[in-house]
């Protein structure tokens, strides 16, 4: 089984202080896709670059303490690419890609628009560029049989069952009709698969991956499902099990793991 986990760390240093290494040793994913690492290269300690038997790769934001994505890989034979060729968003450290012979895994951190109209407009510009970036991947899947898994914090809850208080959030970034329609297009028109939702079409509270630190959101499970594995249909069909780890908390997000009946070709 190929075990892949996606986790928004909300700061890699804070996550390590809260027990990330213990969890990593316990869970042993083959690939950990990380988002919002929020660190500069000179501040990455050796144990953060190469914990346990993993090799770390990062695409860090130019702005200090902001964004940034990364991988921990057990099989380090992949070719690593950073960014998506976008001058506006690549400096924010939002995309890192690992290409194996038969499989591409991407860790993606899509923008949030919660801080106001300017960032929401930026989010829509990102989605437009990201959509164009996705198109050749689906072509490669159809024409060459290459599989793709895009893990990460997409900052969009797709359906009403994907968040606790959907009625009160219909005018809020992350659940706006335009955002949800864009994600529907990714699935229904472009052919990508929401792997967790394919496995568990009726899951509600157990599917949430993010809870605000405000109020009693975690205690009351007032959460959102905004972290995904979004994959090409072939490997999505080989997903056997998925779960959100909630036994302990080292971020405002929880790790989302999917196990695939699939072997990486190094």
Please outline the helices and strands.
Elements: E1 2-8, H1 12-17, H2 20-27, E2 31-35, H3 46-49, E3 55-59, E4 69-73, E5 79-82, E6 95-99, E7 103-109, H4 117-144, E8 147-153, H5 177-188, E9 193-194, H6 195-199, E10 210-211, E11 223-224, E12 227-231, H7 233-236, E13 239-244, E14 256-260
Parallel strand pairs: 1-2, 7-8
Antiparallel strand pairs: 1-14, 2-4, 3-4, 5-6, 6-7, 8-12, 9-12, 10-11, 13-14
Could you explain how this protein is built, in words?
This protein has 266 residues and is an alpha+beta fold. It has helices at residues 12-17, 20-27, 46-49, 117-144, 177-188, 195-199, 233-236, and strands at residues 2-8, 31-35, 55-59, 69-73, 79-82, 95-99, 103-109, 147-153, 193-194, 210-211, 223-224, 227-231, 239-244, 256-260. The chain has a single domain, classed as 4-Layer Sandwich (Deoxyribonuclease I, Chain A), CATH 3.60.10. Helix content is 25%, strand content 25%. The strands form 3 sheets. It has a 6-stranded mixed β-sheet with strand order 3-4-2-1-14-13. Strands 5-6-7-8-12-9 form a 6-stranded mixed β-sheet. A two-stranded antiparallel ribbon has the order 10-11.
């Amino acid at each position: 089984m190929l075990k892949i986990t996606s986790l928004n760390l909300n700061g890699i240093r804070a996550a390590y202080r809260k027990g990330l290494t213990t969890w990593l040793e316990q869970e042993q994913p083959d690939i950990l896709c990380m988002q919002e690492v929020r660190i500069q290269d000179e501040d990455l300690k050796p144990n953060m670059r190469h914990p346990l038997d993993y090799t770390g790769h990062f695409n860090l934001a130019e702005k200090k303490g902001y964004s940034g994505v990364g991988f921990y890989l057990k099989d380090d034979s992949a070719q690593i690419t950073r960014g998506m060729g976008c001058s506006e968003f690549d400096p924010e450290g939002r995309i890192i890609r690992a290409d194996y012979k038969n499989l591409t895994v991407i860790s993606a951190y899509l923008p949030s628009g919660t801080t106001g109209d300017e960032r929401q407009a930026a989010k829509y510009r990102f989605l437009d560029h990201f959509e164009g970036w996705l198109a050749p991947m689906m072509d490669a899947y159809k024409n060459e049989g290459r599989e793709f898994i895009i893990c990460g914090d997409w900052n969009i809850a797709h359906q009403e069952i994907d968040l606790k208080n959907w009625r009160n959030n219909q005018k809020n970034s992350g659940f706006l009709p335009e955002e949800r329609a864009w994600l529907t297009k990714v699935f229904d028109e472009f052919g990508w698969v929401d792997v967790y939702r394919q496995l568990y079409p009726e899951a509600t509270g157990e599917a949430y991956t993010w809870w605000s630190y405000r109020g009693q959101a975690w205690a009351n499970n007032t959460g959102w499902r905004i972290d995904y594995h979004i994959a090409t249909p072939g490997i999505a069909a080989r997903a056997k099990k998925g779960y959100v780890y909630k036994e302990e908390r080292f971020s405002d997000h929880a790790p989302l793991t999917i196990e695939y009946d699939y072997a990486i070709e190094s």
